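Customer escalation, tier 2.

The customer says the design service returned an amino acid string that "doesn't look like it belongs to this structure." They asked us to rerun it and document both sides in this ticket. The original structure tokens are below, unchanged.
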């Protein structure tokens, strides 16, 4: 009787494609609900990053590359219902996550932009909003 080798399935997910970190998603969306006055991304995204870029719906590849100053081969523009947070380290994508705007609208501040880690503190501008709560930089 011939014995076959066991089958393994290996799934790799990284920032080069369209997969996003669901743990970071959950932490950030929970923060929008429970800590609306101060959401320090450094507390919720523990990886080693230097700045975060908020990519709003309609961001094209040329606009994205101009905003972050780097290429990301797997980049897909956020649709109207999502925003993408890209965490940068040494000019490269270290981590990324996509968030539903309905649950926390990081696009509320306007076009795509980046902020350094030590300034990556946000707040919910309208805590009474049940959906599409506007999340803006705490200045």
């Amino acid at each position: 009787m011939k014995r076959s080798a066991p089958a393994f399935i290996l799934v790799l997910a990284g920032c080069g494609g369209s997969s996003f970190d669901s743990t970071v998603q959950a932490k950030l969306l929970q923060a929008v609900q429970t800590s609306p006055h101060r959401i320090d991304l450094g507390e919720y995204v523990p990886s080693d990053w230097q700045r975060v870029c908020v990519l709003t719906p309609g961001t094209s590849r040329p606009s994205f590359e101009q905003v972050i100053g780097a290429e990301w081969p797997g980049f897909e523009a956020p649709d109207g219902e999502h925003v993408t947070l890209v965490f940068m380290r040494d000019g490269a994508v270290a981590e990324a996550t996509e968030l539903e705007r309905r649950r926390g609208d990081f696009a509320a501040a306007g076009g795509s932009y980046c902020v350094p880690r030590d300034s990556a503190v946000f707040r919910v501008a309208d805590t009474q909003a049940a959906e599409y709560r506007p999340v803006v930089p705490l200045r």
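Tier 2 assessment: The sequence is consistent with the input. The chain has one domain: 22-137. The radius of gyration is 17 Å. Sent an explanation to the customer and offered a walkthrough call.
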